[in-house]
Specification:
Blueprint (H helix, E strand, L loop, with lengths): L2 H26 L1 H32 L8 H22 L4 H8 L2 H16 L1
């Protein structure tokens, strides 16, 4: 994943997060809006970690060495992300549907921009 693709995905996701959050707040109130923002930011954090892992794996596949604790880092990523989701839901700070709305913004953006980038390579 190139850094320019990740940057474009970040900006478009953040731009789309604004109207989705406004709609979520209108429909579900403040906790829904908090969930939408939290879901969008969590998905961007996850994308950043994945992109960083892909860059590190690229160096490893090019003949470099991997760090001994890469599996621990992978597990740590999941523990942190799922822990934040569990904390948001357990405390009631975020409505579950708002959280799902925020998490649902990133995948179509990645698909559309990825397909455009692949088309530009052909």
């Amino acid at each position: 994943m190139g850094p320019e693709l990740v940057a474009r995905v970040n900006w478009i996701t953040l731009l789309l997060l604004v109207p989705v959050t406004a709609a979520s707040a209108w429909v579900g109130g403040a906790s829904s809006a908090v969930g939408t923002v939290a879901g969008g930011l969590l998905s961007l954090a996850s994308l950043y970690w994945v992109a960083r892992g892909v860059r590190n794996a690229g160096g490893f596949l090019a003949g470099g060495r991997s760090h001994k604790l890469w599996v621990v880092a992978l597990v740590f990523r999941y523990v942190v992300l799922f822990g934040v989701v569990a904390l948001l839901l357990r405390t009631g700070a975020a409505h579950p549907l708002g959280l799902v709305a925020g998490l649902s913004i990133l995948p179509p953006v990645v698909i559309i921009l990825g397909l455009r980038a692949a088309r530009a390579l052909v």
